[in-house]
From TrEMBL:
Pfam families: DUF2498 (PF10692). This is Uncharacterized protein DUF2498. InterPro entries: DUF2498 (IPR019633), YciN_sf (IPR038191). Gene3D superfamilies: Protein of unknown function (DUF2498).
Length: 83
């Protein structure tokens, strides 16, 4: 099933993901991937989403969502989680 990707554990994958986040042009202070799971070959990243006091998404929320999507695209092509 994962013949074209390299197995990696969650800890090291999150280290790689957070390195990519920090080096990205769209990085904002506080962006961090804290969880990852695999769904049908796609790595799904999670972390804080920065809503305002009324629970409404902020500009930072959109940036975090886009960053996690970027991670899913880039890292799903390289890795799969080893259990």
């Amino acid at each position: 099933m994962y013949a074209k990707t390299t197995p990696i554990d969650r800890k090291n994958l999150l280290i790689e993901a957070n390195r990519i986040i920090r080096e990205h042009d769209e990085y904002m202070h506080g962006m961090e991937a804290t969880e990852v799971e695999q769904k049908d070959g796609v790595l799904v990243f999670r972390g804080e989403f920065f809503f305002d006091q009324d629970g409404i998404p902020t500009r930072k929320t959109t940036a975090v969502f886009n960053m996690f999507k970027h991670l899913a695209v880039v890292l799903s092509e390289k890795y799969h989680l080893q259990d």
